[in-house]
Amino acid sequence: MSDSFVHTTAAMGTVVTIQVVGHGDSVTERAERQAAVERAIEWFRVIESTCTRFDERSELRQLCTRVGEPVPVSEMLFQVLSFAVRVAEESGGAFDPTVGDALLASPSTPQPSSYRDLGLDEANHTVMLRQSLLLDLGAVAKGLAVDAAARELASYRDFVIDAGGDLFFGGNNPAGEPWSVGIRHPRLDAEIIETLQISDAAVCTSGDYDAKSRTPEGGHHILHPRSGSSATSLASVTVIAPSAMVADALSTAAFVLGPVDGIGMLERQGVRGIMFTPTLERFETRA
Amino acid sequence: MNSKQSKNNLLAIGSAAVLAVYAAGFFRTRAAAQRFADDSEQRRPAPAQVDNPADVPVLQRVDSAPVAPKKKAQAVAVLQIQLDSARIPIDSIVPAVTPLPPVVLPPAPVAPPPPPPMPVPVVVDMTPPPVEKATNGLKDGTYRGWGTSRHGDIEAAVDIKDGKISAAYITQCLTRYSCSWIGHLPGQVLARQSANVDYVSGATQSSNAFYHAILEAITKAK
Known about the structure:
The structure holds two protein chains of two kinds. Chain A is an alpha+beta fold. Chain A has two domains: 4-25 and 139-284, ApbE-like domains (T-fold, Roll), CATH 3.10.520.10; 59-135, T-fold, CATH 1.10.3980.10.
């Protein structure tokens, strides 16, 4: 680790750590590296300020105040929403960016909302909400920030971005080997259930251990959009993909779909997935 | 769901989305880097002040075509620097002189459009170069110099007349980015009679390369 530059900061409601391997120890080189990391971190702030559902001034929340009319949105918000809708389509609604209302536990919408209530006009870059709803882009936005940060650091080749479980591994570790990545044991604290060798890929794990929501009976934060209840047939889903945004969204969707449909979707999308059920039965996509 | 297989290639869609967002937000993160640079260390020494504003000559025209480009030159551009009053308050410091109209040179082989922003770090050169003193007593003539950066090279030239810098230009821009980013720097050379130009947010490398090119040119005039 001695020839690595490590920077940790708080962003997007989590801790973001960036490690850059090597690239010299001179004053100039250190300054270069620090500036690159600062730009990478800035992506988290920029994307969060647009896509957060926790700040009513965000573009996302502003969009949610206008129902029934096409609203011009920024390139960033349009891309994030477009991608989220595609994932929703692909997963048959298992992933749905409109679950925000259920997450807030305030059933104010007259009828259940879904991604089908979003009208995206690619030509005009507008979004229309066909009914009152809340949007939650958490799973996509954090992955997007990791991907943008990874592009920012691409010239350094060997680096890691860790944003609260959304990980991207560029190149190799300081020993010149692929990064060694542990998958957290879904049932035993501080235990690793499996170790992967990763290079130039994102690794995202959706589990039932990350965040307890305010639902009773210890429900977790990944909700089935249709039932509003927590998905229970899997304990964790890890997706390995070239993009953290894809890995995060697909791990979330696969977690909701369960082992059979989840593996099917991951294989259709050509990404690698590893799943564990609460009884630690293991499923993996075929290579 | 199976029928959606060909429609939604999420890896391709996601990759395109990241690219679009990256391109659209690129400049916002540049600003962050610049804040960082501003906060971190002293950079080059403060620009030399023009002691006697009346000495600042009016920009002359470029007399000659650019020299033959270096091998593999992709883009050759001569930027005739206009005295932009918005940037260089030349009128306020040379009130009695009317600037000549700028000579617009035909663009040499048109530079290809700059490539999309790439994740290349902006370098903050922490090494303070020697303080450039006012350039009195230079030999008349036109002098050229090269500056290098990791983004490519810049050739700059100065015209010396009556011992002063009478014009400064970027004669060749071989950087990956458009030299329009630093197009106002030659005006600063003229106004300050020195190679000490400002950093350019988002184009620190290019401005450093320009600085070294001018420094070399001025050195040749001594």
